[in-house]
């Protein structure tokens, strides 16, 4: 059913969301484990959310944009850029430049996708915007967030980040 589904997606221009408060400007070198060539790739993630009555009268895009800026204060390296030093050693330059953020609207409901909400998702290419140059590893934003509002107040959120950065942070925080 979802394979023959026709719908339109309207997107805003990608913007950078920076931390809401000043953050340290420093260099964080990656460990030898995190610095492996085989870990230099992006991890895509897509999540669908049903309508939540608590959000009545609130724009999910505005809420997520503000929450992201506040969150980046505590996770400020994600607002930086990955740089390559001598010997191809990777480091995060904590510049506070921000993460990519895209707002989008689609004239389709979550129900119209039917049972296709698991990989392989047939309409992924139509829903997700691949920002030119964002798939590079070096000198680009470490995180891309796209908030897609579907008809009937459902929200789809897409993110991609570098595997090594995400994995390092999870280990650092929970280890």
UniProtKB/TrEMBL annotation:
Organism: Medicago truncatula (Barrel medic)
Keyword Acetylation among UniProt keywords: no
Signal peptide boundaries: none
Coiled-coil regions, chain positions: none
GO MF terms, alphabetically ordered: alcohol O-acetyltransferase activity
Pfam family, one: Transferase
Domain of life assignment: Eukaryota
Keywords tagged on the record: Acyltransferase, Transferase
Family of the protein in this entry: Belongs to the plant acyltransferase family.
Enzyme class: transferase
Protein name as it appears in the record: Putative alcohol O-acetyltransferase
PANTHER family from the UniProt entry: ACYL TRANSFERASE 4 (PTHR31147), OS05G0315700 PROTEIN (PTHR31147:SF66)
UniProt-listed Enzyme Commission number(s): 2.3.1.84
UniProt keyword Transferase present: yes
């Amino acid at each position: 059913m979802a394979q023959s589904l026709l719908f339109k997606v309207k997107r805003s221009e990608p913007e950078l969301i920076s931390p809401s408060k000043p953050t340290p400007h420093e260099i964080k070198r990656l460990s030898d484990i995190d610095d492996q060539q085989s870990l230099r790739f992006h991890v895509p993630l897509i999540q669908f959310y049903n309508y939540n009555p608590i959000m009545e009268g609130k724009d999910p895009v505005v809420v997520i944009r503000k929450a992201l800026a506040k969150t980046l204060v505590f996770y400020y390296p994600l607002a930086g850029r990955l740089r390559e030093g001598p010997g191809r050693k990777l480091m995060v330059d904590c510049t506070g430049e921000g993460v990519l953020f895209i707002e989008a609207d689609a004239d389709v409901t979550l129900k119209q996708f039917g049972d296709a909400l698991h990989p392989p998702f047939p309409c992924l290419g139509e829903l997700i915007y691949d920002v030119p140059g964002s798939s590079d590893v070096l000198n680009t934003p470490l995180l891309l967030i796209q908030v897609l509002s579907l008809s009937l107040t459902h929200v789809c959120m897409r993110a991609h980040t570098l595997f090594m950065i995400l994995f390092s942070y999870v280990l650092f925080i929970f280890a």
